[in-house]
Design goal:
Blueprint: E1 31-32, E2 36-40, E3 48-55, E4 72-80, E5 83-90, H1 94-102, E6 130-134, E7 137-141, E8 150-152, E9 159-162, E10 174-175, E11 182-187, E12 194-199, E13 205-210, E14 222-223, E15 227-232, E16 235-237, H2 239-243, E17 249-251, E18 257-263, E19 268-275, E20 279-289, E21 292-300, E22 319-320, E23 323-324, E24 328-335, E25 341-347, E26 351-355, E27 367-373, E28 381-388, E29 394-398, E30 403-405, E31 409-412, E32 420-428, E33 434-440, E34 446-452, E35 462-466
Antiparallel strand pairs: 1-5, 2-34, 3-4, 3-35, 4-5, 6-7, 7-8, 8-9, 10-11, 11-12, 12-13, 14-15, 15-18, 16-17, 18-19, 20-21, 21-24, 22-23, 24-25, 26-27, 27-28, 28-29, 30-32, 31-32, 32-33, 33-34
This protein binds fe (ii) ion.
Fe (ii) ion (FE2) binds near residues 282 and 461.
EC number: 1.13.11.-
Protein name: Carotenoid cleavage oxygenase
Family: Belongs to the carotenoid oxygenase family.
């Protein structure tokens, strides 16, 4: 049985799209010690490192290529004393080392038949998906369950190696800003199909199996003060096909998605709530409000290209292989007294990769910041959208025609959540010119624009690492910085 949920090569947008133009990998690791300011000014209080992970194949990937196959590469801009510098480095995984020793790509891609005989396989842990800063460590995480994070130094971006302290996990682990605990999930093709984990800053590790009816591809989690929000999604490998040894992803519209509350004090899953069938990649945030739990998510109701759901719109929406991305930002209100969940639409704009100020994780949040999808089949953001999570009121800032940006991170400048800038890489499709943009969190006004002298390809998730971490983490602090 596979634990990959990308195993069907049917009906996918071909690998050329995700290996050319702005998705093409860069071939070199570079350092640009001082970036030119093109517009605006760097905020005086801005100190820290903005980093973004990405898929950047070291060698020409075997066909068929999937965007998620590439080796992890981190691009980062460090801000210190009113100046900014850039560097990019591969995450030096064991799989990448094996490829380098062979002088070619040797691993099975997601759209090929997996090689179960391969040590450490069948898929390469590329560490290409997400970045998390915890307890003095920058961790590069992989979207697929069953992989160890990789630790990197900041700001050097040198890979220290796989980081075993918490065990395997998926991308989108979180840091609880109250306790400093690392909170994570892992999933697997065999029981336990999911595992919840916490690691305290003094090294106490707790891993708890979660009872699920079968393997579930769970991409993200959310935190409240007391709970971790987990999902039992409605898109998963067809159980009947699995009995014949085949993985065929299906959406089950008659099977509600279940939202689980995992009590982190009691270390157990205490309750499931049902919401309409959907798939979810990313949460915006969650929090407790009296006897209710509020969860905000980018929800997909029609997530597979080859299995159209009733009323499929004719909007042009991004697709990655057979995955169809038509998100809506919704609010789930989980009533702890009745056990019922209510779903409400917050915003129907085509937008994903929601981010907030990391210090507000698990607390009531006014606004989330999302990338707005360009109307095309490739995954490209043509702007940034600020959405009020209460009223749904939204403002947007679009990039110039032909320019596309990545996920934003929120870089705080003071205690007020609006006293912050959003940071993201932005690149021009034809020329490959790349810039770093800073926008005000309140109005999305341009605060500063910096030239990156080399191309920064499209990528995945970002993290802003505040202030003190600009010092080398080769000598590690003993307490969490965020
Ligand atoms: Fe993600």
């Amino acid at each position: 049985m596979l634990w990959c949920f990308m195993a069907s090569a049917r009906d996918f947008i071909d690998g050329d799209t995700y290996s050319s133009q702005d998705f093409a990998p860069v071939e070199r690791e570079l350092d640009h010690p001082e970036l030119e300011l093109l517009e605006g000014e760097l905020p005086p209080g801005l100190q820290g490192v903005f980093a973004r992970n990405s898929s950047n194949p070291r060698f020409v990937a075997p066909e068929p290529y999937h965007w998620f196959d590439g080796d992890g590469m981190v691009h980062a801009v460090s801000f210190a004393d009113g100046r900014a510098s850039y560097r990019n480095r591969w995450v030096r995984t064991a799989g990448l080392a094996e490829d380098e020793a062979a002088g070619r790509a040797t691993w099975t891609g997601l759209l090929s038949r997996p090689d179960f005989t391969r040590a450490g396989g069948p898929y390469k842990n590329t560490a290409n998906t997400d970045l998390l800063y915890w307890n003095g460590r920058l961790l590069a995480l992989w979207w697929m369950g069953g992989g160890l994070p990789h630790a990197l130094t900041v700001p050097e971006l040198e890979t220290e190696g796989p980081w075993p302290d918490a065990g395997t996990m998926t991308a989108h682990a979180k840091v609880d800003p109250r306790s400093g605990d690392l909170v994570f999930l892992d999933y697997a093709p065999t029981p336990p199909f999911a595992t919840h984990g916490t690691l305290t800053t003094d090294g106490q590790l707790t891993r708890t199996p979660i009872e699920l009816p079968g393997p579930r591809p769970q991409h993200d989690l959310a935190l409240t003060e007391r709970y971790t929000i987990l999902l039992d999604v409605s898109m998963f490998a067809d159980p009947e096909a699995l009995t014949r040894g085949k993985v065929h992803m299906r959406f089950f519209p008659d099977r509600p998605t279940r939202v689980g509350l995992f009590d982190r004090k009691a270390h157990r899953l205490v309750r499931w709530f049902e919401v309409p069938a959907c798939y979810v990649y990313h949460f915006a945030n969650a929090w407790e409000q009296g006897r209710e739990v509020i969860v905000t998510v980018c929800r997909m109701r029609d997530p597979l290209m080859y299995q159209p759901q009733p009323g499929r719109t004719d909007r042009v929406v991004p697709r990655i292989s057979h995955l169809r991305l038509e998100p809506e930002l919704v609010r789930w209100t989980l009533d702890l007294d009745t056990g019922l969940a209510r779903e409400e639409l917050i915003d129907s704009a085509l937008a994903e990769f929601p981010r907030i100020d990391d210090r507000r994780l698990g607390s009531p949040t006014d606004a989330a910041f999302l990338g707005t999808f360009a109307e095309q089949e490739a995954f490209r953001f043509d702007g940034v959208r600020r959405v009020e999570l209460g009223s749904g009121a939204a403002i947007e800032r679009k990039y110039p025609a032909g320019w596309y940006g990545g996920e934003v991170s929120v870089a705080p400048l003071g205690p007020d959540p609006d006293d912050a800038v959003l940071v993201t890489f932005v690149s021009e499709l034809g020329s490959g010119r790349s810039e770093l943009w800073l926008l005000s969190a309140r109005e999305l006004d341009l605060v500063a624009k910096l030239a990156i002298p080399s191309r920064v390809p499209a990528g995945f998730h970002t993290r802003f690492i505040p202030g003190e971490a600009c010092r080398s983490t080769r000598a590690r602090p003993s307490s969490p910085l965020i």
